[in-house]
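so im writing up the methods section and need the Nitric oxide reductase record in one place, dumping it here so i stop losing it
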Amino acid sequence: MREYKRLWWALLGVVAVTFSLLGYYGTEIYREAPPIPAAFVSESGKVLTTEEQILDGQTAWQSVGGMQLGSVWGHGAYQAPDWTADWLHRELVSWLNLAAEDQFGTAYDELNEQQQHMLRYDLKKDYRTNTYNTKTNTVSLSSRRMQAIAQTSDYYNALFGGAAELQQTRANYAMKEVTLPSAERRARLNEFFFWTAWAASTERLDGNATYTNNWPHEPLIDNKPTTENIVWSLVSIVLLVAGIGALVWAWAFLRRQDDEEPIVPKTDPILSFNLTPSQKSLGKYLFLIVALFTFQIFVGAFTAHYTVEGQGFYGVQTSEWFPYSLVRTWHIQSALFWIATGFLAAGLFLAPIINGGEDPKFQKLGVDVLFWALVLVVVGSFIGQYLAIAQIMPPELNFWLGHQGYEYIDLGRLWQIGKFVGILLWLVLMMRCITPTLNKEGDKNLLVLFMLSVIAIGLFYGAGFFYGERTHISVMEYWRWWIVHLWVEGFFEVFATTALAFIFFNMGLVSKRMATVASLASASLFMLGGVPGTFHHLYFSGTTTPVMAVGATFSALEVVPLIVLGHEAWEHYKLKTRAPWMENVKWPIMYFVAVAFWNMLGAGVLGFMINPPIALYYIQGLNTTATHAHAALFGVYGFLALGFTLLILRYIRPHLKFDEGLMKTSFWWMNIGLALMLFTSLLPVGIIQFIASASEGLWYARSEALMQSDTLVTLRWVRTIGDVVFMVGALAVTWQVVKGVFSSPEKAVKTP
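--- predicted struct ---
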């Protein structure tokens, strides 16, 4: 018990310190976010745009898919440009051409090097000088810059309005024709894009860096990495090495084994419990999981094809009904839904076991109500997103019923509330089984940790309600990453670790002490890096140097525990041979082994690739991010959710024998397909983009010229091979689950 006490104090200390950092520097984001002035005005006093119009433009951007159509400040989709970098570069080129005509009577490209250097000096001075007047809350702009803004706005109006001369450009950007029909809303959209570019090119009043820490890389105005960026990048690398070294030493000198291995029961202890009504009703959850999973992989392949044929699918013009921004939204949202459902189902399966093999009163009713609530949220949010992007939904209803525009939390606010209510219902169902057990005698440490992770999952999704439709985008990004990073990568990680420990302990495969110690230690390690590591997503989202420092420092520590997951994989793999009856759960165990592998590679190696500020400066918004996202989201959470699904299926169908052919196909083809997808397409594309970003600027790395080059088009076609291999494996596991769910609980499924 003394050992537990030390571990508990360590965990509480980690949580207290890390959340203090997250909260304190979160308030700094509120204080130091780039200003949205009351008005941008010309030297003559003409108003270009106002705060209200910029926020109207933000809502217009949300309605066309927001981060699912290009990106802003590097966050979003990768086919269309980053609108901040693209707008800024186009505006700068327009300014230079206007200046060249005014002073030399010719185009900028026709000038000699000395003349160009002179104009670029004036350009940098005009753009990087901050003319924000804190007393009047206005920003003044030069007349030449006003002209450049007008020219850039004309191009964007034609692009989003369906001008015939830009049809091929829209196809290359995977935009549908007439993306935003309203001319007035297009004007507001342009003003929002302009403001993001202004913040990215204008220095703070008290510093030498822009509001976005000199991001994006733009040589024309000397946007380059700050000194602080380089310093904290080096610090993060040193801390990573030191952290790995410390963990290896601690592992070698402090790790203890039980005096003796637990005696493995002759039969599976979980089968000694009679299935409760609530557990028997989980079959429909498993079907929903694989149904959404199958939908996700097919719509994902459809989305990927848009990167080579931007408005069609093998010659069929599909973009008018199912444009890229919509299918990418569905691809990501369906992944989040089925993975979350897998975790919820795992909790609901464990709850009666924790309660001594019994359901509390009305537990089955609650499980059934939660299922149909999930279905309602999925269907309702998908329909709302379709109506929003088709511009059928009235603009004033978009945020509530349509598309919020923010990647990973795209669903309308009403559906987001419905999802939160469902999670709270799950929390209630879990706590009804956990709390009675707390009063019983015996070691409750593992149960308490599991309970705390359940509570955190239930409550912390509520962070998504701390921003609204017209909230400043820097503030929105802070709260968005509370969900995408902290809720998922923090609390779900602790829940998964503790749930697996519970399962293996109840199977008699590990001792309670070993399960408890491992879970508490893992929770501290995950939270130490994971909580303040949230800031590594916010280096260039209108934040200051301290946010970068905290994010770089702690995000390096996130990687440390992932490096030693090979041992966890080996420990899981060995469980297969602990008892003859373990053969029945061999394949769920193999899926958990895959989780450990992809946690190390996808979350660890590929995650750290984009974590240091100097790396992310050049590759934020490129396919390097997509490489990490696919490897970590599916490789870790996808395999984990599918492992839970197979494990639950095994127990709610006690006589089920997994089809060896299907399971081998599913496991190996999905792992190999994912690796092919990453290393033959996404990563090579990202590396080529990185070189372009470092040499020319982010605008070029995401430009039509580079993205439609023969090499990159070929690499995106090559992805088809990995996609097809992966889909074969996915269909195999789906068919296995469907066969199991719809088989008779009393009859075995014969292995051929």
